[in-house]
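BUG: 3D viewer hangs when loading the predicted structure for this chain

Environment: internal workstation, default settings.
Expected: structure renders.
Actual: progress bar stalls at 90%.

Input used:
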Amino acid sequence: MVNESEFIARLQDPKSKENAFRELLQLYKERLYWHIRKIVLNHADADDVLQNTFIKIYRSIDKFKGESKLFSWMYRIATNESITLINKNAKRSQITNEEYQDRAINNLTADVYFEGDAIQLQLQKAIATLPEKQQLVFNMRYFDELKYKDIAEILETSEGALKASYHIAAKKIEAFLTAD
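Structure tokens produced before the viewer hung:
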């Protein structure tokens, strides 16, 4: 990719916005899909959230001031859209977010797009037991291999708090996986 500020300028210029946005889609579609998928857990919901995320990015790109990296800003939108979907679906089903996540985990094996084995399923069950913020931090650090600095930008919190959250999450997951 070219210089980020030049790319953002192209995204914000009405003459080049369409082509620049197509490039943006190609660059980030898959990464954002898998980030969203780890939060919402099923393919259909992930597709919906991804579409909503890119619509929001397209509509809001003119307001992007460059105070964070473009990537971090998009991840923040994707994360918020994912959480919004979970909250909306849980409310519609009249259950808690935790109960909704439990159902999503239990439905993973029926999802034809889930490619994990028994170990991956156990890991997803362990992650689902974590509080929402620890889930997000663990997924972004462990699966997406993001730097704490980038996660801090996305979640708008300190690196120190994230490191503590990740450490606690890893310990809880380890305890879950070794309990029997």
